[in-house]
């Protein structure tokens, strides 16, 4: 990682720490960080392993329900809710992975979509999700009995700390020998197999890691917003996380964060002005991005910088 990139990350971290003091609405930034973490988790699978999943909403949404149910109806603390949600996302990812991992391309994507829809209909019927009403009024409680998460600023810095830790964790995973094997699988799976690597094992582990992080994002989102609904587990949520990753730049570290920021900001800004047309506007932006910026915003910026360095 170059010094310029490190300086940029450091500047963004300082900006994020100061955000509540600069007048930014903490709940909005927390929501953005939750979806940025969700997009980073998805990018670990698509951008660095080459597996396109259409079912990531299942991990995000199921974890949101589990965390909300643990905290609100079982009376456990927020740490237990987050842990339970994360573990449920990882276990669900293990089941999905065992079923889908031996398929490739469109078959893999369709199997994950079908499994995700099964989870959606389970959540629609299961009593603990309260069906179409969803879980409402989930309390934040006190983290470890010390930190009052009802205070937006305390909750904000907890969410920020979790996001930074996960971002650095993904960075470490991708740059590790394990991550290099994932990239080899993305670039040329048959050759990776011929070199003696157990490709299915690596792909399954990447799938479970990605699902667990998506579950963590869903759990945090429930505590931040105070509810979990069918929207979290609907297939459109899987589409949104794909859009965030493609818009920012698949296979880049910061691209999914930027993509999530743009999508969440557009939804928040245009919701009152454009109503349901906001989805049409975001769809148009997606089409323009795919046609004109196929590498995403950050990917195109990297390509531009590389071309400048290559000039004599």
Q: What this model shows, in words?
A:
- The protein is an all-alpha fold and 312 residues long.
- 75% of the residues lie in helices and 1% in strands.
- Strands 1-2 form a two-stranded antiparallel ribbon.
- The longest helix has 27 residues, at 199-225.
- The radius of gyration is 19 Å and the shape is globular.
- The model has no long low-confidence stretch (mean pLDDT 87).
Report the portion of residues in β strands.
Answer: under 5%
Task: Please outline the major beta sheet.
Answer: 2 strands, antiparallel
Q: What form results from the Cα inertia axes?
A: globular
Whole-angstrom Rg: 19 Å
Q: What is the string of helix and strand elements?
A: HHHHHEEHHHHHHHH
Oligomer: single chain
Strand order of the largest sheet: 1-2
Mean pLDDT over all positions:
87
By DSSP (H or I, 4+ residues per run), the number of helices equals: 13
Give me the secondary-structure category: mainly alpha
Beta-strand segment tally:
2
Uncertain residue segments: none
């Amino acid at each position: 990682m170059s010094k310029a990139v490190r300086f940029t990350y450091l500047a963004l971290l300082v900006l994020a720490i100061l955000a509540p003091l600069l007048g930014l609405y903490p709940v909005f930034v927390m929501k953005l960080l939750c979806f940025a973490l969700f997009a980073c988790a998805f990018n670990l699978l698509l951008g660095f392993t080459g597996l396109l999943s259409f079912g990531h909403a299942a991990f995000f949404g199921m974890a949101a329900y589990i965390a909300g149910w643990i905290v609100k109806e079982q009376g456990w603390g927020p740490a237990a809710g987050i842990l339970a949600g994360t573990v449920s996302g990882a276990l669900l990812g293990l089941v999905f992975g065992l079923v889908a991992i031996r398929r490739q391309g469109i078959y893999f994507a369709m199997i994950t979509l079908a499994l995700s829809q099964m989870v959606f209909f389970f959540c629609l019927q299961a009593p603990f999700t309260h069906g179409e009403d969803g879980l409402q009024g989930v309390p934040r409680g006190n983290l470890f009995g010390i930190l009052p998460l009802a205070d937006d600023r305390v909750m904000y810095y907890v969410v920020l700390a979790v996001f930074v830790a996960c971002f650095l964790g993904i960075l470490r995973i991708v740059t590790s020998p394990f991550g290099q094997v994932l990239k080899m699988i993305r670039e040329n799976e048959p050759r990776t197999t011929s070199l003696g690597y157990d490709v299915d094992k690596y792909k399954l582990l990447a799938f479970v890691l990605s699902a667990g992080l998506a579950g963590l994002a869903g759990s945090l989102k429930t505590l931040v917003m105070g509810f979990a609904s069918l929207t979290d587990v609907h297939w459109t949520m899987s589409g949104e996380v794909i859009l965030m990753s493609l818009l920012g730049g698949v296979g880049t570290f910061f691209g999914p964060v930027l993509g999530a920021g743009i999508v969440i900001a557009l939804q928040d800004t245009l919701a009152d002005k454009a109503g349901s047309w906001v989805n049409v506007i975001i769809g148009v932006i997606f089409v323009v991005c795919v046609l004109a910026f196929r590498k995403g915003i950050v990917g195109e910026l990297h390509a531009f910088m590389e071309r400048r360095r290559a000039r004599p």
